[in-house]
Design a protein that fits this description.
One of its GO terms (molecular function) is ATP binding. By secondary structure, the chain is α/β, with parallel strands linked by helices. The chain contains ten helices and ten strands. Bound molecules: adenosine-5'-triphosphate.
């Protein structure tokens, strides 16, 4: 697959999706490009996680399509998709008390590696990624016994060892302390600079401003704006996106400042 800077890796066209009678996405189109962090913003329940699941091929769109190098995801196997797209969910409950190293190693599964059959190279890759995200000290701890934030970092490691060039993260910083947020966001930016396409949902416009090359504002199942964060994340647009009055926004941003 082509991964030149700014090459379109994944394309979503006119996606619609709903649950039962509830229509959630009403015609969403966007491109995901190599070398870019794309931040997806929108109010609670607006369909950000649902959109990620369509972009990952986990849900088939009701209409429209998602294509990877011009091939619809609906015509690809999960294993094939996993070679290109890695997912960091908001929550993940491990049914078994695996160690962090084992959970991270599961990222190699699609390429044939399973616990007993991990190659030496797989093992080295896992160790390298644990160091990169600064959680190597957790490697032998049980995943079920570490904190939510530590679990999120382990899941990012699992996505990285997968070797996919498109990373999709659902609110990756939501459970992280200030230091880990700063480190993770810097890592995501670096990954884009290394040629990855990074897509993350976030509730923090300032996170988008800090690291994203592009922001997509999703409201009522439609793309309200799509562009450079500095250009589109204006106070007026943020007010509109989250239904805030000028006073509410001013009071909140004064507090944040
Ligand atoms: N499995 C499901 N079955 C039925 N309805 C669902 C399901 N998943 C999500 N929904 C509904 O679809 C809408 C969009 O949900 P989604 O989780 O995509 O929103 P979101 O923008 O990611 O929200 P948040 O910011 O709160 O995480 C919500 O109204 C939600 O209740």
């Amino acid at each position: 697959m082509e991964s030149k800077a700014n090459a379109v890796l994944l394309q979503a066209q006119q996606l619609t999706y709903g649950y039962g009678k509830q229509q959630v996405l009403n015609g969403v189109s966007l491109d995901i490009r190599a070398g870019e962090v794309l931040a997806l913003l929108g109010p609670n329940g607006t369909g950000k996680s649902t959109l990620l699941k369509l972009l990952l091929g986990l849900y088939p769109p009701a209409s429209g399509e998602v294509t990877l190098a011009d091939k619809p995801l609906t015509q690809m196997t999960r294993r094939e998709i996993a070679g290109h797209i890695a997912y960091v969910p908001q929550h993940h409950i491990s049914p078994f008390p695996y160690t962090v190293r084992q959970v991270v190693s599961m990222g190699r599964y699609h390429s044939g590696g399973v616990f007993g059959r991990m190659s030496e190279r797989d093992g080295e890759l896992v160790a390298k990624v644990l160091i990169r995200l600064k959680i190597e000290h957790l490697a032998e701890r049980r995943y079920t016994e570490i904190s939510g934030g530590e679990q999120q970092l382990a899941l990012v490691c699992r996505a990285l060892v997968q070797g996919a060039k498109i990373l999709m993260l659902d609110e990756p910083a939501s459970a992280l302390d200030f230091g880990h947020q700063a480190r993770l966001l810097a890592q995501l930016r670096q990954l884009a600079e290394d040629g990855y396409a990074v897509v993350m949902t976030t509730h923090h416009p300032h996170h988008a401003r800090m690291i994203a090359h592009r922001a997509v504002m999703l409201k009522s199942g439609l793309v309200m704006a799509n562009g450079a964060p500095a250009e589109i994340l204006t106070p007026a647009a943020i007010q509109q996106l989250y239904d805030l009055s000028a006073q509410e926004l001013a009071a909140f941003t004064r507090g944040v400042a």
